[in-house]
Amino acid sequence: QVQLVESGGGLVQPGGSLRLSCAASRLFFSASTMGWYRQAPGNERELVATITSGGTLDYADSVKGRFTISRDNAKKMVYLQMNSLKPEDTAVYYCNAKLWGVDYWGQGTQVTVSS
Fold first, then answer.
1. Using one digit for the tens of pLDDT, what is the confidence trace for 10-35?
2. How many Cα atoms sit within 13 Å of 92 on the Cβ side?
């Protein structure tokens, strides 16, 4: 059973930074496209950022220039560095893995941006 476990969420003031981490297990990690999605109350889950097995990056327009996704294949970890956070970034952030047409999800971590 594939497991994705997120950590690093919390409460931060506007303009602050957070780094989310996702640890994967029982997953062919190096072949997977890894990503971060988020869901705010009343909204659908949306893409934040993805990184393919080859290192190709994709970001939502709303986070370009502020967020950076990265991965460490040896550690089976994916990260999301979030800078210049805004109140509208408040959401539950989910780690995602895509492998051979199958999606895997973590349980989510809450990020709240508020003064």
1. 999 999 999 999 999 999 998 899 99
2. 13
